[in-house]
Structures
1.
Amino acid sequence: MASPAPQPAPSSALLRELATLLDAPGLQTGDAIETRFRKDWYAPLGAVPPLAVVRARNTQDVAAVLALCHRLRQPVVPQGGLTGLAGAATPEGGELVLSLERMRGVEEIDAQAGTMTVMAGTTLQAAQEAARAAGWLLAVDLGARGSCQIGGNIATNAGGNRVIRYGMMRDQVLGLEAVLADGTVVSSLNKMQKNNAGYDVRQLFIGSEGTLGVITRAVLRLAPLPSATQTALCALATYDDVVRLLRHAQRKLSGRLSAFEVMWADFYGLVTTRVPGVRAPLPAGHPFYVLLDLQGNDASQDAPVFESMLESAMEAGLIQDAAVASSHKEAQSFWQLRDAVAEFPVMWSPNAAYDVSLPIGRIGEFAETLRTRLLAVWPHAEPVNFGHVGDSNLHVSVYLPGATDLDFPEHEISDVMYGVVREFKGSVSAEHGIGFHKKPYLHCSRTPQELGLMRLIKRALDPHNILSPGRVFDLD
């Protein structure tokens, strides 16, 4: 059943009041609305622009705009860097876009607390660079770092390449400030790791995809800045060997394993033959390839430990072949293999891309089962598998040669995909969120009781259902 639709006031009245609240660059209407605000990364460009775009300068702007929209029952969709892959930031007709892009900047780095206080519109890369300049590491990292924003990273609980060591975005957030649907500012800019004073309200907003409030500022945990990295690409014969290598590396490297990226043969063959500039450090033909690295602070000590770990893995028969990066430039070339997925929308289109989570021990079996089910319906399908795996995350892309945007059966492919996810007791979303794209399949990973609790929280915090209505789930 569709969510109860907010009944907004006439747009002319809303726009007049918005004009009194905002400076000139803060409001775009009509033909002045830039095309980029119509969609996030995943969604196709829609024909219907938003009612208007608000570009808030600060928390006070956000609060005033939301109070007005709450009073007039005007639906609002918050937007960050528009790099989302679930469609949550794509506006529908009649919705107001609330962009956080002007709210950027690092307000403080507290060296004693090991924290950074940052505005929500700050790009992840800008925050990383500020932390690095101060001798710290902001641990979350993903390919869209130059465009994605901290507020969006928190609202979607972003993951990325370093989750196995540092955790998701949730694990980096010590405190935050958010504005509720009625304009109430909830400021909980906590800097302490331990704080058990009642409910932990920050958790309401982390991963809520803009449906419960608009995040405006955050206090992020920083980690000591590594000064040395050891990187290797390994070839393996079986998925069981992949899991054994993961546990072997975790034991031998004593918590310093910071990435464990797995590429199936189909992915490795595709990117090393079809993506310009990507070279193959190891010959094709092995069933699995693992990109792993150690982050430490003393190369003279880290390198022998890393090499010893690899040697013992080879002696145990876990690794068939390996290449160790001898320089930072070579390590970057290894990572180009994994990051080549960014080229898929251009060179391999149309394709259906999925981000799922499974119990680590069953990911190999899942991939084989999915391939069998897909080929039974589409014999010429080309599924490729890759993922972080050490944190249970698998990415799958499915390409159908000869298909066009008009006849590509994405919905049918999704039915097969999420049916297998449900069978394996996995999650339909590991790190990309639900948005519009995965909403029909949320029930595959959440019980009716969990969904009921989500709706209860949504009604309590947003009684008029104005914040990102229809995303994640529908209200009964």
Note: The domain at 348-445 is CATH 3.30.70.2740 (Alpha-Beta Plaits).
2.
Amino acid sequence: MEKTTGLKRSVGVTSGISLVVGTVIGSGIFFKQAQVIATAGGSTPALLAWIFGGLITLAAGLTISEIGARIPLTGGLYIYMEKIYGKVWGFLTGWAQTVLYAPAIVASLSAYFAILFNNFFGLSQQWQLLVAILTILFITGINLLDNRVPAAFAVITTSIKLLPIIAVIAYGLFFGKVDALNQSVATVTATPSGGFGMAVLATLFAYDGWATLTNMGGELKNPQKNLPRAIVIGILIVVVAYAGISYGMMRAMPANEIVRLGDNATFGVVTQAFGKLGGRLLTIIILISILGTINGKLMALPRMTFAMAEDGVLPKWLAKVNRFNEPIGSILFLTVTASLLQFTASADWLSNIAVFIIWIFYTATFVGLFILRHRDKQAAQVAEPLQELESIFSVPGYPWVPLIAILGALFVLISTLINDFGSSIIAIGLVFIGLPVYWYYSRKKGEAYD
């Protein structure tokens, strides 16, 4: 039986695609080019790393799309994990995103925005904290209005952020004089993190955010069709954009020069193509791009917290909606926690921990598709069927596509554990701190633990 909420089904497929693209494409594509080339050891393996990372992400998106079509409810991974593995694991999924992933990712994005904003306007570092918090408050204000407003903001910012990507691709294709393929670099990353595999890992971090839309399953129009469409089309656009800008940059500038310029490589290509004014315009567009990404997070992630509060496993005030039927309690909770995190760890540490945690639950959810299909085979009828078989999206290439998603997820987790074991264990510990909270609310509701 589908849960009823105070949220409206008013988000269409175009807004859904914009949310996927806008949430994924932030600043990473503009700053990761040199890292991927240096880690991979040359231009051809770097380009392949972006493509491989995109294929893994597409496999993940297809897998989640079928699960989301079967369970078209507000709450995303929280609802999926609860339906597949039971209430304890559903709660821990939601808890991890509410208290760790969502605040950490919003805090890190706003910190990156503040750094770039201050550099552009020549402000001293002491303004960084204030700018970051004001950025969060600005996007919060947009998301407290009718959800058509942040949805429109997502469409606008996504359209704007694609402009420099298209420009770099076009410049590289039509005016670039460098052979983009078969270039080697003089200084390959000489650390345990070097190699093609770690280059793919770097791209997977840049692709993160594609599953954010699943949190809004209860607000999408016709979610059984539009959720898979939005996720798959959105990921395909991102893959083309990422591989395209990588190829375009390597056509415009030698790989060694890109590695030498590091984070400034994209600015170097744009300045080469369009002059100093072009470089400054790129900075403005990247700032808009990051705002769009923060908007996507603040638009979708509070829906999961809202769903948990509606279920009675978090304080009821988190399920409060305003006159626009927006989950004001959950949105403001994310606003406050993300703002407080500005006073703690660095943006890089926060973003790395956030991505590691979310991939733990991605992995379990991918495996869950096999469980759901097995249940369908075991019984023609169940007490509360998730969705009629003939009306749902099915993953093409099953079981190989979900297996690719699972292997990619395991690669992310194992690589992160090897490279940052201490932080990974801290993050896992913070997840399991949620168990006493779950026991408290289960006892309060008079339910048995499961």
Note: The longest helix spans residues 265-310.
3.
Amino acid sequence: MTGGGLLVAGTTSDAGKSVVTAGICRWLVRQGVKVAPFKAQNMSLNSFVTKEGAEIGRAQAMQAQACRIEPSALMNPVLLKPGGERSSQVVLLGKPVGEMSARGYHGGRQQRLLGTVVDCLAELRSTYDAVICEGAGSPAEINLRRTDIVNMGIARSARLPVLVVGDIDRGGVFASFFGTVALLSPEDQELVAGFLVNKFRGDVSLLEPGLDMLHGLTGRRTYGVLPFRHGLGIDEEDGLRVSLRGTVRESTVAPPVGEDVLRVAVCAIPLMSNFTDVDALAAEPGVVVRFVDRPEELADADLVVVPGTRGTVRALEWLRERGLADALARRAAEGRPVLGICGGFQILGEHIEDDVESRRGRVDGLGLLPVRVRFAPEKTLTRPVGEALGERVEGYEIHHGVATVTGGEPFLDGCRAGSVWGTHWHGSLESDGFRRAFLREVAAAAGRRFVPAADTSFAALREEQLDRLGDLIEQHADTDALWRLVESGAPPGLPFVPPGAPA
């Protein structure tokens, strides 16, 4: 028996597809439905490693958590990791299969992957009662429709009803809804069931005449109006934003547990990956996290984080060009804390031998850690567990660089030299005991009277966020109608909307 399905598309990128998908998943699982997420193709530098050692988008890992299941490669069979303006690493079923230009990918490779993504979706639908799929960008990108596998391509292949999400906070949502439908072929329009308004501020009754007019123009109803809520963009694909923004805002406005706050500056290096590593820091009461790109912005920081990157050598050069490399060296000489994670860890080392990512050969690092890095053709994808600072730590690794530590004190898989720490482990700061121990070390080195809260649970905060998403769907969407879509598909007889119909 095949389970039900739904594709959550958007009028634009960042319309709210990821969080709406997660919210529908959490609402369904609370109703006792066995549900899974799916995104045929994701383009993101924020990724995660499954227990089987497969790399997928972090958004799909977050959505799996919303479903209360373990993530798998089936949920995101194609992941594109940009390495520059015109090329990306292609990750297929969790493993990298090579670099490809956008022209080469859309020129033929993408369409050949349609069979793979259809098979993955079919396997999920044979296992779960429902699969909630997320689109990418807009389904009305007509220049890419011929090779599309993530929006109407997968909807047509799997006969999925489509719910189009629009961000009304940006403006122009009615035109975006109408234009999205009108630009689609009649065959694609048959599957577009209706709309969902996201991020509405104000009195819904003032919006209703417009929704009625939209229904008259398109023959399609609106399935809900979700109010604007701060802090719901958890584990987003891209953008310099701390995911638990609502929690961050509340914790940093409230007085810290100790006498001081702790200021964290994250270097916004090019091709930054897994910036979600700092979310757990931002969730701590009294910790303020900001992204910076100028050396003067490090002056008042108690901790500077050099995060992961898809372009390690490029990021290293950028740090030098911006004067941030010298600022980091001064911090280390003064005994002020610096943490490098993954690519940031490699940057802090003595040198990098890269014949894989940048193909630049040997490049001098910042020399702040006794580490030498050699890039290997095979990517390391693991979920390590260990101990540091007397606390149990879990993390995940995604890197080509192989580090040889030649000195310092052990720190997870990396090392510590004075006030400079480095590790390949993403997600380590989500381990509550370790995070608190690390922040105590940072506060001591920075001379701050900061005390981490004893009861902050990052996992619990994440669950609260997912429940808030589920509440939004339950309270502000027509859930009976949504379930009918999932179970039975798009309503029959939806009219064709030709371009220019309102005139």
Note: The first strand starts at residue 4 and ends at 10.
4.
Amino acid sequence: MTTACLTASLAAAIGVAAPASAAPCGNKGIFGSSLAFGSSFGGLLGSRSDQKPLPRISTGTSRTIGWVTGALSNNRTDTRFGISGTDLGISWDNGSGQTLMAFGDTYGDCNAPGQQWRHNTIMRTTDTDPDNGLVIGPGIPGDIRSGASVSTAAPRTASEAVGSPGVPGVAITSIPTAGIAINGIQFMNYMSVRSWGAAGRWVTNYSAIAVSRDNGQTWTTAQSTVRPNLPAPSPGVRVVDDSNGKFQQSAYVDGRDGFIYQYGTPNGRFGAAFLARFRPADILDLGRYEYFTGDRKTPWSPDKTKSNSVVREPVGELSVAWNARIGRFVMLTGDENRGSITLRTSRTPQGPWSGPTTLLTSGQLSGVYAPYIYAGTSPDSSYLYFTASRWQDYNVMMMRTDLSLIRVP
């Protein structure tokens, strides 16, 4: 079953919501993941797609480095990959010397039919020191290690990774939320978005894992990993376990103990963070996952209904990584209520996690969201590099936090 057919079969049982009303190119007929962003993060999306110079911000612990995407980036993704606007930039080590990066709704020429909308795109880099700006190599048709997956017919346009019908109220788009490589195979968790709602809120049909055996060139959804998130059962549709809603958005981290840990949040930015773990070989078998219960005697259970939160709400998009320099796992999240990007640390994947340390506020840089730790640098570094997106520009930037300036409990 294709992703589109899967979405259609699930969406047949639910009603149609009102469409969104704006988009990165200012076209009301096109829908982008930026539409759900705003509120506490500040700013309004203009009618033009013009990208502005990235402000040079230094908060004491963190600073901006430069644009990763867009016409004002060193990578000139507008002319090289047909990417004038996009967001997210979720990264992971592909296991063979490259960092793969997954981006959300992607737009190219705003004057072209459909603004060259792709639901998501993948780029690749070998840059291990993004301090002077992340470098992405050229896209070469047929080369699965080039800067992006491009075709002979469109050598300057990054290809879409995971499709979606693009139908408002049924399945608007497919948004990546996490990625990991296991034994040379790439696994990308994504959510099928049914409709955008108020700022920081959206409805999903399901989350699932897409698999690539050619370094992110092509992707296939593993049907065994689909977590339906229908709001109510209907005739002909099986009853959906509410616990699926805890894992509509994800983050992966190697626990350094033989397990891969998957953090999950509900769709939107106002839920708590939950935790599951699995052996690497079992990533596509949800029946072998264990869920953190919070109980001292039986902290892990195969029953997902027993899963308990590890970080209290509100948790926006999140990412987690091990940092050897401070000897802690590091978690970055957005806080929609406060309009901030925060950092937490823990000795173990399940916590207890420290209280949040604010790295950046909307007052310092408005419209910033989705902090994703950059996977291409050494875990021994005292610098934590991460991507973030800016709503007004609808593009991805690189930032840096000096962990030596962070109080670690």
Note: The radius of gyration is 20 Å.
